[in-house]
Design a protein that fits this description.
By secondary structure, this protein is an alpha+beta fold. The chain has 14 helices and 61 strands. The chain folds into three domains: about 280 residues, Transferase(Phosphotransferase), domain 1 (Orthogonal Bundle), CATH 1.10.510.10; about 300 residues, TolB, C-terminal domain (Neuraminidase), CATH 2.120.10; about 270 residues, 6 Propeller (Neuraminidase), CATH 2.120.10.30. It is globular and about 85 Å long. About 50% of the residues are buried.
Length: about 850
């Protein structure tokens, strides 16, 4: 593309490199465009593993770029003699992955990663060169490729092949649009070559090389070199998957895997004999998890060593923070939306994990132990919180507030909490908790007794709901999350002794936690921030400091995936922990395909003709929740709602012309509707001070049934006739939870979920309601769905299996057979108001919101002595 000169920058007295496109070539529009694109792409990056660009300009018609001068050689030259040792290859690969991650965060895809474009400096640093083929994508978007660079059109012609034969991704070879996962494939080809000394895809001609990329797999690395670490082989294989969705989903994930391998495999890189791993079934979720189990075993040794070091350390101040990774126990995965929780004394980690039977249990793991232990009687646990002495845990399960001693024993039930939003425990033995929005905070003794409101009539006087409380050191003041307007959330401080509250952080998108010796930790966009906090003035001071990146949060409760102890331990988990993949399956559970890319999403609803899909998606940066539409024939998603708020629980009108949904834009959830063509504006259908969740629209178009969250009676079912929306009618209003209601196709029956029996079960009642009901499920059930002809009812069992029940809805009474199992699922979040699967009209295909393996096995990061990095 150009000529490179060594030059001297006389202003700063430094040697630089000047890349010049000769004037004779500048008339070539395509060559000029590529040159300018390289300059702009590289110039927007500032990372130690990417060539730094200092200046760009034009001289006598010839464009030029001034960059740092590198001393060393390309990776191609390094590989000209032999393959690299494993340790060196991993070190270089990690630096390349870091550079790619930085570029991808800026929306830049390299598209031509190869040994010639990777430079090894004399001090053994890696630099990525030549962004001449780089494409720009919108940062934070859905990774659909855009090619506009400033005002220049950098569009690739349809079907054009861009890249270098032998290192191109299959989608590049086919001339298809590419995203950041194309770079990950090229990275895999480079890493394979550094380890084996030969190309992953090589033919006698460029055409043969391209054909090999599309159809062939490279030889196993252990055929080319002995003692290749099996986990390293798996990383390479995953990068080289033909289908983009099977590769690492980001360069961050890739670098994380390499760093984990480096930190936990030093001895195996030197002396371990060659191990030939059993080929992984790349479709099976459980087999995908074998990598996580193996890594967990290796990481356990590291954890034990670091744990012993931590607990036997001398009192002198350490100068560095120490990080270690913890994976869930074998045959379990971490529950989505349930962050890890470190004890106040910093010695024990608590987390919720799902076992192979589908049960969610609360586990505790001392940091100086290799074993995580489930707590007896903690089935269905959510939102745990520690006692101040680190001996007990409070948690919510099956509509109750409970406490359990970490040493063992059955939990004690303290109070009702149908739809909780967090709790906190102070040194005086007082627990405060939000049992159900929009209830005020209640207080109760940790030893039991009656619950009483902390602030009488606070909500009636226009006060805000107080979610996710956490006590400050004095045990009287507490932090909480208040939703202001739209998607805005305010972290405030309140007091047990006053109705007043004070704003502390107005830019957080999660809860906040106090961290001695005087910091507040909170999540801003996807970064975990630390900022000085004055306990006397109850206000922040100074500037916030980022201490961790890509920290996740739960969009339903606003709980950030982090916690902190009193003695310098921080734990956090990546934002990928809640991601799911919309997956088609048949009645036997066989996967038929996927829809869109993995994301934090849910509430899936097929249109009546099965041609379109509406679902909700979480913006990881802002925390807002919007609705999206996909035409399943075209496969192109489009945003449906645009308010900076939370829109969720969509349902279709019987003719598919409108979509009804719940929205937080006016305070508590209210019901809105909009034309499914996306034309027009959102229209309020039903507004009132109580929270309302849309559930279903009768097939005759006459009624909408919805859930009401009442602090006195918990979940109730109401319906409203569309002929007069000013007159809603109670369908079921009891002291139990009734939710997730669905009309039968003939409109005579309503299937719903009730906990009247003590567990959530699928029941059926006549519509309008009459005395008597039929319990359809036998061992727990959620999310009922009717087949379009009314002859079959589906639901999810307590262990996440998809169940089928033959029914008769045409007689004078409802008739049903015993439930049968269709197949197991890995659906996350079944104990929530939304819908996490959909079924086609004929009952032959199911769209499942499956938790992806990366989300389930995202490790917990534990940081010891976290403030040391602040001082540095």
């Amino acid at each position: 593309m150009g000529v490179v000169y060594r030059a001297c920058d006389v202003k700063l007295n430094r040697d630089v490199a000047v890349k010049v496109l000769p004037a004779a070539y500048s008339a070539d529009i395509d060559r000029l465009r590529r040159f300018e694109q390289e300059a702009q792409a590289a110039g927007s990056l500032n990372h130690p593993n990417i060539l730094a660009v200092h200046d760009v300009g034009e001289h006598e018609g010839a464009p030029y770029v001034v960059s740092e001068l590198l001393e060393g050689e390309t990776l191609r030259e390094t590989l000209s003699t032999a393959a690299l040792p494993q340790r060196k290859a991993i070190d270089y690969a990690t630096m390349i992955a870091h550079g790619l991650a930085a570029a991808h965060e800026k929306g830049i895809i390299h598209r031509d990663l190869k040994p010639e474009n990777i430079f090894i400096t004399k001090d053994d640093r890696v630099k990525i060169l030549d962004f001449g083929l780089a494409k720009l994508i919108p940062p934070g978007g859905n990774n659909v490729v855009r090619t506009d660079v400033a005002t220049l059109k950098a569009q690739t012609s349809a079907g054009a092949v861009m890249g270098t034969a032998g290192y191109m991704s299959p989608e590049q070879v086919r001339g298809e649009p590419v995203d950041l996962r194309s770079d990950i494939f090229s990275f895999g080809a480079v890493l394979y070559e550094t380890l084996s000394g030969r190309r992953a895809f090589h033919g006698d001609s460029a055409i043969e090389s391209l054909n090999a990329i599309l159809k062939e797999e490279p030889p196993d690395l252990n055929e080319t070199k002995t003692r290749i670490n099996p986990q390293l082989e798996k990383i390479v294989r995953r990068c080289l998957e033909k289908k983009p969705e099977r590769r690492f989903h980001s360069a961050h994930d890739l670098s994380f895997a390499l760093e984990a391998l480096t930190s936990s495999s030093d001895s195996s890189l030197k002396t371990e004999p060659m191990v030939t791993p059993k080929p992984a079934d790349r479709v099976s979720f459980l087999r995908n998890s074998r990598l996580a189990w193996i890594v967990a075993g290796v990481l356990a040794l590291l954890t034990l060593g670091l744990g012993v070091l931590y607990f036997t350390r001398q009192p002198q101040v350490e100068t560095h923070a120490v990080k270690l990774l913890i994976l869930p126990p074998a045959k379990t995965y971490l529950a989505a939306g349930q962050p890890p929780l470190i004890s106040p004394d910093g010695k024990t980690l608590a987390f919720v994990a799902i076992d192979d039977s589908g049960r969610g249990l609360l586990y505790v793991r001392p940091l100086d132990s290799l074993v995580a232990r489930p707590l007896e009687g903690s089935d269905g646990a959510v939102l745990p919180f520690w006692s101040p002495d680190s001996r007990s845990l409070g948690f919510f399960a099956k509509g109750k507030l409970k406490r359990v001693d970490v040493s063992g024993g059955q939990p004690t039930t303290l109070a009702n909490a149908p739809n909780p939003r967090g709790g906190a425990w102070n040194r005086d033995g007082v627990i405060i908790y939000c049992p159900i929005p929009p209830s005020p905070l209640l207080r109760i003794s940790a030893s039991g007794g009656e619950s009483t409101p902390i602030h009488a009539n606070l909500l009636a006087e226009g006060g805000m709901s107080r979610w996710l409380p956490s006590f400050l050191p004095d045990g009287r003041h507490y932090l909480f999350v208040a939703r202001m307007s739209g998607s805005e959330r305010d972290v405030r401080v309140g007091s047990l002794d006053s109705n007043d509250s004070k704003s502390v952080v107005s830019t957080a998108n999660s809860h906040a936690a106090y961290a001695p010796p005087g910091y507040l930790l909170y999540r801003r966009e996807s970064n975990l921030m630390a900022q000085h906090f004055d306990l006397e003035k109850l206000e922040l001071q100074g500037e916030p400091i980022p201490i961790a990146e890509d920290v996740g949060f739960d969009a339903t409760s606003y709980q950030g995936y982090f916690s902190v102890s009193d003695d310098g331990v921080v734990v956090h988990q990546s934002g990928s922990a809640g991601r799911t993949q919309l997956t088609w399956s048949d009645r036997r559970g066989k996967q038929l395909g996927t829809v869109e890319e993995p994301a934090d999403q849910g509430d899936v609803e097929l249109s009546p003709d099965d041609s379109r899909l509406v679902f909700r998606r979480v913006d990881a940066r802002t925390g807002s929740i919007s609705l999206w539409l996909i035409d399943l024939a075209l496969g192109t998603p489009s945003r449906f709602t645009f308010e900076k708020t939370s829109d969720f629980s969509p349902i279709w009108s019987p003719d598919g012309s409108r979509i009804l949904f719940s929205s937080l834009r006016d305070g508590p959830p209210n019901l809105y509707q909009k034309l499914s063509s996306s034309a027009g504006t959102d229209e309020a259908l039903l507004k009132s001070p109580v929270a309302k969740i849309s559930f279903d629209w009768s097939r005759d178009g006459r009624y909408i049934i919805y859930g009401v969250v009442d602090p006195k009676t918990s979940w109730d079912l109401w319906f409203v006739p569309l002929a007069d929306t000013s007159k809603p009618v109670a369908f079921l209003q009891t002291n139990f939870d009734e939710r997730q209601a669905k009309f039968s196709p003939n409109g005579r029956w309503v299937a719903y979920v009730s906990n009247e029996s003590g567990t959530s079960e699928v029941c059926v009642r006549q519509f309008p309601a009459t005395p008597g009901k039929w319990q359809v499920s036998t061992a727990g059930g959620e999310q009922p769905r009717w087949r379009a002809d009314g002859k079959e009812l589906f639901y999810l069992s307590a262990d996440h299996k998809l169940m089928s029940v033959e029914v008769n809805t045409e007689g004078a009474t409802f008739e049903h057979r015993a439930p049968t199992v269709l197949f197991g699922t890995r659906i996350g979040g079944i104990d929530t108001p939304g819908n996490y699967y959909a079924v086609t009209a004929n009952g032959q295909r199911f769209l499942l919101n499956n938790l992806i393996a990366e989300a389930a096995y995202t490790p917990i990061t534990v940081v010891l002595n976290w403030t040391a990095d602040l001082k540095r």
